[in-house]
Amino acid sequence: MRNNNDIISDKMDWVTVALYFAIVFLGWINIYAVTYDQAKSISIFNVDINSGRQLIFIVGSIFIILAILIIDMRFYETFAYVIYGAILFLLLLVPIVGKEVGGNKAWLGIGSFGVQPSEFAKFATALAVAKYIGSVGFRMDQLRNQIILFAMIGASMLLILLQKDTGTALVFTVFTLVFFREGMSPMLIICGVAAAVIFILTLLVNSYYLFIGIGVILVVAIVMGKKKIKRIAMLTAAAIALCCVIISVDYVVTNVLRPHQQNRIKALINPDADPLGFGWNVTQSKIAIGSGGFLGKGFLKGTQTKFDFVPEQSTDFIFCTIGEEHGWLGSLFIMTLFVGLLLRIVFLAERQKNRFARVYGYSVACIFFFHFAVNIGMTIGLFPVIGIPLPFFSYGGSSLWGFTILLFILLKLDIHRMQVLQRI
Amino acid sequence: MNEGRKEIIQIVFVLVAFVFLVKLFFIQVLDDRYAQLANSNAILRQIDYPVRGLIRDRHGKLIVYNTPEFDLQIIHREVKNLDTARFLDVFSLTRAELLQTFKELKQKKEYSPVKPTIFLTKLSARDFAKIEDNIDEFPGFYIQARTTRAYNAQAAANAIGYVSEISKTKLEKDKTGIYKQGDYIGQSGIEAFYEQYLRGTRGVRFKLRNVDGIEKGSFRDGEMDTLSTPGQDLTTTLDLDLQSYGEYLMKGKSGSIIAIEPSTGEILSMVSGPSYDPTLLTGKNYSSNFVLISNDTMKPLFNRPLMAQYRPGSIFKIAQAMVALQEGVITPETRIRCDRSIIDCHGPHTNEDLRGAITNSCNPYFRDVLRRMLNKGKSNNPFDDTRIGLTEWDKHISSFGFGKRLGIDLPNEKNGLVPSPAFYDRAYGGRPWKFSNIYSIAIGEGENLVVPLQMANFAATVANKGYYITPHLVKSIGNSGKPLPAYIEKHYTTIDSMYFRVAADAMQRVVEEGTGQYRAKLKDVIVCGKTGTVQNDPKPAHAVFIAFAPKVNPRIAVSVYVESAGQGGRSAASIASLMIEKYLYGATQRPQIEEYVLKGKFLN
């Protein structure tokens, strides 16, 4: 029998690995570009600046990758619930013993070293969800099974919300896309998107116009379709429900959302209203990206991203550096890398021989997709500012390691996909 | 059962990336607004202010120079534990003023707690010494230097003009884009007329700055930076000693003195009385001083040499004589009876020739000269005949530079007035007019209006025997050694030069034996002059005197106009001769005349 290492190198999906290292490397040099100051010219390896520290995190990820590959592939499925439970426990611990960084109490300190358990909750939840869907007798059309699934992601979300880390909590909504792949009715996603659209519309347009618009649509729908009493009653009920939603959105925005969250939504709608206030992030980020032009200003030549105009530059707004220094072409390149990675993961997921591995693969793809879409979307003003990192790109040890673990567990499962059959 | 869902998910992934790329294409490639915003965001355009050109007198003596002025800037965020009592003491402020300043600070458009904002402007030099010693006690406050105008002599304030912040209306009209709010600009006099030479060119330094406005070095290693070039110095035609002396003589009087070097048109001295201290319009109290000066009932900002339009009085008889000689209606030997029944006269004379009539300033003589001019019998209709005559007369009179702007290198010059047939048509509202209606213009009364500059220019024209060079105040821009091209050209009158000899002879006699004798006469030099006494009922008449000297190769031509000072032979003749003396010899030898002028009691 060939030894373990040979199997790994033979069966490893080197395309994914190459994409992974390409993105990590580009992220690293862009983190350097952010902190680069021509007057000081500090080395990219200097651990006093973010790029130096990021390099340590990258080296750390290599050890994590090795560990994941060495551990037996059966470990992940077998201990999925245990890992999930442990992470939930850590999440529970954070509000009690955690330390506060940047307004969010999301860090667990071990000496001078801090980790964000929420970053690891993603892979843990993905494992648990995959195991549950992959378990014998699971049927997506059973309400009980669905409730348990939503309870699983709901528990993670709730505990992360308790840390006031709304952005990371929202990531878990993307599991609905995984459920959709596994047979759940698309109605839930359609309703969710529709609710979001109405929510945004309510903020954009005066409620009275919306009421009038709904009224007009209602009348048209009644006139155009069959004149059955049941249908008319249904449509009217739906219209009234919509109006109630609109009224409640107003209430939610003014009374439930916290001021900075309100501002983020207002900034999305009209960043020019207060470009130096709540619109600052989006305005500055758009200026930085927009000033890049087609080819960009050149590596280390950015002006906007150098001098702290864009806040959270190394982490959530790292894409600005790409946009400014490498222009549209650079953005196209990065987008291609990410979409390539996402499609490759879907490809990997689809070639898995058991449901656990496939669901897990889709979870990884969807989590990356959510981060990718929301992170870049907010920098160009298409999404509200939700503080979540760009996978492998943003500065930060916890997020890099969290994403690395997510991806490489999938690669480990992929290496051994044929053994699953052998085992059965 | 889940057919096609994989594809749906893949499509969603690709679609989102595609939407992003489209949006990015819009903001990065199609919309250049962001690039501009980025530049104004991170690149600080720092103006390198040029030094304004200096202004010197004809001998190179400095009149106007620049002196540093200090502003107090504040970076509000850095202000900590301000010892208010101490601050008030050091900066000589009251508590209310300080509170007001802080209130105004926050209302300023450019205010930001992290950027330097001007807190107090124009700390005077005296304050500054104290402030400089103690500024360290007040963190967050910084001193910023710039230059302001300073004056070596309190002279020629109206001719030189002043510099102050550009007004909003001027800023809106400015098409050059050179000026920005808060910039200084020449507001009057030479400072305004030669603004484009004096201001120099600004430099621009592009600095990178971070979000707090803190500089982070130069942009592209300064390859786009430009250095400021200082403004060009001006050498004026003024003789600072003569100018100061003129202002000394005019103290307490309203009026003007203009002295011109006839051969060049260079203005040796231009006094507008009363004047003001130009240093009042610089520094800390500019605004309040400006209000004070502009509200003064004596109108010190009114530049009389160019702007005060007076009737010329009897000095106009010289011009009249020239025109009549040129037109051939009289000869120098023509005698006319002094018929005082139509127009009053003065002095014991009865039947003079032209020189005698000028010497005695005979009114009936010149009334008849004008009659001969205007009614030459070219038409049988006396009205038409006058019209024809007046048209010819106009042409000649205008050629002396009367009735139009001479084009001096100062703003706000007035035209004066030479009445034309069209003018009388308007004045008479279409009713007919003839010589008997308008004969007052014969003796410089009536509708004629001239500004003192035109009178001096006229004296220079007579001195030059028939031409003038437009009077001007700047003889050299920068190191060129040349004035503007307009100030080299000779303007010839329509009068033959031989007739000016007659005028010069007559004007010599005015000084030696006529109305100007005694006070205008000088021992070592022949002065040619003409008095004027302009009716100003019910107030005392205005005193006028024009003169040039020496008679041969004249070096100076003068006009003096003293408001409400009675006969021209007294104040005006005295001042004119003192100016000539001062210019030719450096000092007067007639202290009694100087004393007489300074005492200023001309009416008794």
TrEMBL record, chain A:
Q: What's an example of a GO molecular-function annotation for this chain?
A: lipid-linked peptidoglycan transporter activity
Spell out where the chain crosses the membrane: 12-34, 54-71, 78-98, 143-162, 169-201, 207-225, 232-253, 328-347, 359-386, 392-413
What is one GO biological process annotated to this record?
Answer: cell wall organization
Task: Identify this protein by name.
Answer: Cell wall polymerase
Name any one Pfam family assigned in the record.
FTSW_RODA_SPOVE
Q: Which GO terms describe its cellular component?
A: cell division site; plasma membrane
InterPro entries reported for this sequence: Cell_cycle_FtsW-rel_CS (IPR018365), FtsW/RodA (IPR001182), RodA/MrdB (IPR011923)
Q: Where in the cell is it found?
A: Membrane
**Membrane topology type:** Multi-pass membrane protein
Origin superkingdom = Bacteria
Major localisation: membrane
What are the UniProt keywords, alphabetically? Answer: Cell membrane, Cell shape, Cell wall biogenesis/degradation, Glycosyltransferase, Membrane, Peptidoglycan synthesis, Transferase, Transmembrane, Transmembrane helix
UniProtKB/TrEMBL annotation, chain B:
| Domain Penicillin-binding protein transpeptidase, first and last residues per copy | 255-577
- Entry's localization field: Cell membrane; Membrane
Q: Which residues form the Penicillin-binding protein dimerisation domain?
A: 49-213
> Which residue ranges does UniProt annotate as crossing the membrane?
12-30
Q: How does it sit in the membrane?
A: Single-pass membrane protein
Q: Entry's InterPro entries?
A: Beta-lactam/transpept, Beta-lactam/transpept-like, PBP_dimer, PBP_dimer_sf, PCN-bd_Tpept
Q: Name one GO molecular function term.
A: penicillin binding
Instruction: Give the GO cellular component terms, alphabetically.
Output: plasma membrane
Under which name does UniProt file this protein? Penicillin-binding protein 2
Question: What is the originating organism of this protein?
Answer: Chryseolinea serpens
